[in-house]
Amino acid sequence: MKIVVQRVLRSSVSADDEVVGKIGKGLMILFGAEKGDGDAAVSALADKVLHLRIFADDQGKMNRSCLDVKGEILVVSQFTLAGDCSRGRRPGFDNAAAPEEAERLYNNFVAKLVESKLNIQEGRFGAHMQVDIVNDGPVTFILER
User: Fold this and answer.
1) Which of 79, 109, 121, 125 is catalytic?
2) Is residue 99 reached through a cis peptide bond, with omega within 30 degrees of 0 on the bond before it?
3) If you write DSSP's letter for every residue of 85-143 in order, what string do you get?
4) List 55, 78, 109, 121, catalytic entry
């Protein structure tokens, strides 16, 4: 499982010319599931995202989590994170989880975040989407399990 976490001032995602998710200050997360990923990885990454101290404290140091600042979270599925670009010029997707399993893991990840009581928004799984991101910093991390 790979996720890209971006600290944002605001972000939105559209599908079929309709905004389906929109947040203010918080985290924009791109979520990619790979073969062999399971519920333990989902729980661990959701916990990591919620507690990752990447927001500034009063001294300007990254010391606060999304929970601490009561940030919002937008989650978008992105199977291309499982792409392998190590050979040739076309990415291979042999490591990507099957769509049904990826959707189950994605839904579980979102459900774990919802338990935090923060405002959690999401894209539309499997849809062609357009993502608007105003990255704050920029601050971006890649997390893997």
Assistant:
1) 79
2) no
3) -SSSSS-B-TTBPPHHHHHHHHHHHHHHHHTTTS-EEE--TTS-EEEEEEEEEEEEEEE
4) 78
Q: What is the mean pLDDT of each run of 10 residues along the chain (145 residues)?
A: 98 97 98 96 97 97 98 97 94 96 98 98 96 97 95
The range of the structural domain enclosing residue 140 comes to 2-144
User: What's the CA dihedral at 121, 110, 75, 53 to 10 degrees?
Assistant: 100
Q: How do 18-23 and 26-32 pair as beta strands? A: unpaired
State the total domains in the chain.
1
Global model pTM greater than 0.90: yes
59 noted as active-site residue = no
How does DSSP classify residue 80? G
Give me the phi and psi of 75, to 5 degrees please: -115, 130
Active site residue 79: yes
Asked about 6 being catalytic, the answer comes back as no
pLDDT of residue 50: 98
Instruction: Report the pLDDT value the prediction gives residue 145, as an integer from 0 to 100.
Output: 87
The CATH number of whichever domain residue 61 belongs to comes to: 3.50.80.10
